[in-house]
Design brief:
The complex is a heterodimer of chains A (about 325) and B (about 220). With about 325 residues, chain A is α+β, with helices and mostly antiparallel strands. Chain A contains nine helices and four strands. Classes of the chains: A alpha+beta (about 325), B alpha/beta (about 220).
């Protein structure tokens, strides 16, 4: 056999020899990419949604906790406008106050118009007048100097720090964030399970390849490496598709949201749900989820290969 | 090279499929493993390849007790053994060239370093013009030769072949068997499992290991 003259070799271009040991293109592989893409998209949506809700709730809480209301009750024989002006003056000089906005008579009438109708005279009713005070910080302790100043300089004014309403808002906002986080956790479990099943399905046809590699003398680590690399590539492909779709979704949502802010009612929606604008952290989370999903796919395939190899001796 | 001492094998709690196996495979020897279908030929080949471990007795391979070997050691030993499976077990997505080169590739050898060897062997087994063909388009005989070439490419010290001529016509069977004879002459111990008596008669000098009722009888061959 060795004594025969060395035959001339076919040129490199005529010899097909670059095929990976795991077939790169199979129906099971394509199905796995589709499953991974869909699960990644849903996981990114859930994560992005949780981040948006979390950020929006922080925004509400910050805005609302910085605002307090001063009520000035009219008293017979006293000029309520003068009392409002005094209270505004006292409040604006108190430490920690950023801005004071007294509601004028016209503004107060406009506020009550839905209940009392247009064109009534506020002066005929003992309706308290309001001043909105915007504090420099959301700290409740900063209200004490303001409260003391009002007690001394404007005794007819009372301060409402919205404590009850704020605590309810806090509870609701926390519940929404916890719900979003729980939804994301469930999504991750469902995704890992679905990817696990899909990977096992895609690996079912590979048993023959694993056995042949084993019997021609491939080390277990070599076989596992080949499959892990293959499934990592499939995972990356699927995750990239799902992640790109989610990125596009959030980018389009931010665009549509910025248009709708200018429409009727858009501002209220925006203040409640945020601007649908995912920040750098959100996009980083999407990239992280994609990489984690690809790594999970590779890891699962490696575990399955080792399990099959253990059964082969 | 390979020694079976009082080897027996049972599946679960069933009766022993093979029992009291005592024999040696000497270096550079040539033997047929024969017997009726279902007698245990394939089981014995699996024991020789450590695909199965005996439920009693000892198998020594290249001087080592197979039961005491870890997976890495078994992998290293397997690289010294060539196997031809009854159903070829070629990978359908790899070309004939890639299938034959597979044992060298999994050892981590560079493709440029073994290309000449593989091409030469493929030409030697008559597949020089089928190097780029995929197994599904090969004929039964071509698949058989590709499977044999894959077993030979590592120049094994021991070659195990399960019915290597089972799917081909008598003339091709004789040609394939001559490949094994050539390999034997170059220093490899050969074990061929077959139930083709006509074929064995053409190689009267070969030892015959006859399995029947789970036991083994050995008939030494004629002097060549």
């Amino acid at each position: 056999m060795t004594e025969a003259p060395l035959p001339s070799l076919p040129p490199d271009s005529q010899l097909k020899r670059d095929m990976p040991l795991v077939p790169p293109d199979s129906i099971a592989g394509r199905a796995l990419i589709v499953v991974i893409a869909i699960m990644t998209f849903l996981a990114c949506l859930t994560a992005g949604g949780a981040i948006l809700i979390g950020e929006a709730s922080e925004g509400w809480r910050d805005d609302v906790s910085r605002d307090v209301t001063i009520q000035v009750k009219p008293r017979p024989g006293e000029d309520v406008d003068a009392l409002v002006a005094t209270a505004a003056d006292v409040a604006s000089k108190a430490p920690g106050v950023a801005d004071v906005h007294p509601y004028s008579k016209a503004e107060s009438e406009k506020l009550l118009a839905p209940w009392l109708g247009e064109g009534f005279d506020l002066g005929q009713l003992p309706v308290p007048r309001l001043l909105i005070v915007h504090m420099q910080s959301a700290h409740r302790d900063d209200l004490k100097p303001l409260r003391d100043a009002l007690a001394a300089g404007a005794p007819t004014a009372s301060l409402d720090d919205h404590r009850l309403w704020l605590s309810r808002l806090d509870t609701m906002a926390n519940a929404v964030v916890v719900f979003a986080a729980a939804l994301f956790a469930l999504m991750i479990v469902a995704m890992a399970t679905a990817i696990g099943f899909a990977t096992r399905g895609a690996m079912a046809g590979a048993r023959e390849i694993i056995e042949v590699l084993h019997f021609v003398g491939a080390a277990d680590s070599y076989v596992a490496r080949e499959f892990q690399g293959h499934f990592l590539r499939l995972g990356l492909k699927g995750a990239a598709i799902g992640g790109a779709a989610a990125t596009l979704f959030f980018a389009l949502s931010a665009l549509i949201s910025s248009w709708s802010t200018r429409s009727a009612g858009g501002e209220e929606i925006s203040s409640l749900f945020g601007a649908f604008r995912l920040g750098a952290f959100g996009y980083f989370a999407i990239v992280f989820i994609c990489l984690a999903i690809a790594a999970l796919t590779g890891f699962l395939s490696r575990q399955i290969v080792f399990r099959q190899l253990r059964g082969l001796l | 090279m390979l020694r079976f001492e009082n080897v027996g094998l049972r599946y679960g709690i069933g009766p022993e499929v093979v029992r009291d196996l005592n024999f040696d495979i000497a270096p550079q020897s040539f033997q047929f493993l024969t017997g009726p279908s279902g007698a245990g030929k394939t089981t014995m080949l699996k024991l020789m390849l450590f695909s199965l471990l005996p439920t009693r007795g000892t198998i020594r391979i290249f001087g080592e007790d197979a039961a005491s070997l870890d997976k890495d050691a078994i992998t290293a030993l397997r690289r010294r053994i060539g196997v031809v499976f009854q159903d070829f077990r070629l990978l359908d997505h790899l070309t004939t060239y890639e299938n034959v080169a597979l044992p060298l590739r999994v050892m981590g050898r560079n493709e440029g370093g073994y290309r000449a060897e593989v091409v030469e062997l493929l030409r030697w087994v008559g597949l020089g013009d089928r190097m780029n063909a995929l197994p599904p388009v090969l004929s039964g005989g071509e698949k058989q030769r590709a499977a044999i070439a894959r077993a030979l490419i590592v120049r094994p010290e021991l070659l195990l072949a399960d019915e290597p001529t089972g799917n081909v016509d008598p003339s091709l069977a004789r040609r394939l068997l001559r490949l094994f004879v050539e390999l034997h002459k170059s220093g490899t111990a050969v074990v061929i499992a077959t139930h083709d008596l006509t074929l064995m008669d053409q190689f009267g000098y070969a030892r015959r290991l006859v399995v029947g009722d789970g036991q083994l009888r050995i008939f030494e061959g004629d002097s060549p």
